[in-house]
Specification:
Chain A is mostly helical. In chain A, 73% of the residues lie in helices and 3% in strands. In chain A, a hairpin with a 5-residue loop joins strand 2 and strand 3. In chain A, helix 9 runs antiparallel to helix 12 and helix 11 runs antiparallel to helix 12. With 272 residues, chain B is mainly alpha-helical. Chain B starts with 12 loop residues before the first helix and ends with a helix. Chain C has 93 residues and is mainly α. Chain C is 67% helix and 4% strand. Chain C contains three helices and two strands, in the order αββαα. In chain C, a hairpin with a 5-residue loop joins strand 1 and strand 2. The chains are: A mainly alpha (289), B mainly alpha (272), C mainly alpha (93). Chains in contact: A-B, A-C, B-C. At the A-C interface, helix 1, helix 2 and helix 12 of A face helix 1 and helix 2 of C. Strand 1 of chain A pairs parallel with strand 1 of chain B, so a sheet runs across the interface. Chain A: Belongs to the binding-protein-dependent transport system permease family. Chain A: InterPro entries: MetI-like, MetI-like_sf, Sugar_ABC_transporter. Chain A: It is a multi-pass membrane protein.
Amino acid sequence: MEKTWNNKAWFLVLPVLLLVAFSAVIPLMTVVNYSVQDTFGNNQFFWAGTDWFVEILTSPRFWDALWRNLIFSGVILAIEVPLGILIALNMPKHGIGVPVCLVLMALPLLIPWNVVGTIWQVFGRVDIGLLGYFLNSLGISYNYTQNPAHAWATVIVMDVWHWTSLVVLLCYAGLVSIPDAYYQAARIDGASRWSVFRYIQLPKMKRVLLIAVLLRFMDSFMIYTEPFVVTGGGPGNSTTFLSIDLVKMAIGQFDLGPAAAMSIIYFLIILLLSWVFYTVMTQSDAEQK
Amino acid sequence: MTNNSSGSRFGFLIPVIYIVFLLLPIYWLVNMSFKTNSEILGQLTLWPTNPTLRNYTVIFTDPAWYNGYINSIIYVVMNTVISVLVALPAAYAFSRYRFLGDKHLFFWLLTNRMAPPAVFALPFFQLYSAFGLIDTHIAVAIAHCLFNVPLAVWILEGFMSGVPKEIDETAYIDGYSFPRFFVKIFMPLIASGIGVAAFFCFMFSWVELLIARTLTTTDAKPIAATMTRTVSASGMDWGVLAAAGVLTIIPGALVIYFVRNYIAKGFALGRV
Amino acid sequence: MSFSWMAWTLPTAIFFITIFALIAALGVWEYFSPGGGPRVGILRFETTRGDRLFVSLLGSAFIHLAWLGLGGPSLWWALALSVVYAIGVFRFV
């Protein structure tokens, strides 16, 4: 759609701008201020320069958490996006099945995150959980509180359980907006199932897929509550992701300076990755038009 | 689509298996909420052998528990209303006009959606203390706008771009003022979009815990925080924990049930 | 209402004033010659000068972090490197 150039549109955006600036810019400035100072409480601050940044950047603890988090996000995207598309393609298109599917699938999305953690904590337990009990009776000595690999598997399955529905719902919204005429034309041309997907459904889903991939990436990169409830970051540090590490530092140890420095590094990484994602996908969008 | 476009005859099995996978852990929670603690910790049973309502009675008779639900619902509803109201004009501006710095503003809004709450938890506490807003519902509602407003703008912009511009122009020629056109003509056209945006705002505000917990102490404490506190205090009362968990699922389930027609309608509109 | 909790220092204040000044300057530039001078540079997609400023600032932030992480000498060198980088971005991207 051709848009008109009109700077008065700023007035329409102003409420959003003020509201978000209040909640985003002031805290961000505060974090920057804290990151270069040391404090012993009582709003007494001492200049520390770049010491905290050096400390964080040279600590193996930070790099481990970063890699762990990147691998986690990669695995999550690799499972949830294809699975979400597959499920959306096979959803019923009309009849009673549609609302039933939508309501049931959206259910995990509306469970508070710590409850999701609680559900899986209980479900996976060997003594009182169905999953843990079942796996152990199959002869697999599954125990997510002892074995790092099992803890990882549990956290990943939990995230797939929790968030795949978001991808499904968004893809489904994209799919249903395709007019029947497209499918009829494809049928007349004798198009294969794959080419219908590749040339009709996938392009139409592009915009919603952009939203889904961005949302899933960002959320998995700042995941905190669910793994914290299930594993508490352990066993050892094996499921300590960036946010868990950060909260440990900021609230657990009250190291404001290092925590603020880590926040900034964390935020910059997210900013960079999101910008890359956003640019790549909007560019491919523009090329298609 | 008159026939199943996916082509395969057993395609319907995929969503069915997926839904079973979704419901199993939830079933387990519901199952536990009707058991006594001795049964939970004793033999593994697939359904409660002597069902009890004790766990729910505990929650409904203790103000510390049920106030948590009321608090959560108050700030979530406030947040949803604020987010959608401010996002509507902004999304209209983004979908219809080009203006100074529009693309960067849009990206900047999205970066706030991406910012990890852990980064903001501490300065938020200081910020809202300075304004004397700690432990109020409005504080949590405004704090959650940080990620909900950008999302609402993004979703609404998508829906609004689907409405042809000719409709705006015709309305202006017919002598409609902008506010009247927006409320009388434009909003009904994107009603489904508003429904979807409200759904997402409700959802993300309802499930967020870190910020909500940081900004509240007693009067506005959300249910999710009440759960963590009570569990650590009284050891592991699995039954009450499960019952509280089940009760947090219910408001969400109700919301989905109400917006499902909106969503379906939105799909129908998109096909025109 | 007091803002002492924000713990302002002169260097951070200068930092934020610089950033806001850059954004304001860009706004003025954009106002007098709208469009943002879009072109396709070495990254092979279209950028406007706003994008170029963003890439410069973000890249500078990472240059500084790398400098600190690798234990380089005075941070002023990192700043000089960032300026060179920013000029490169505005010239070629």
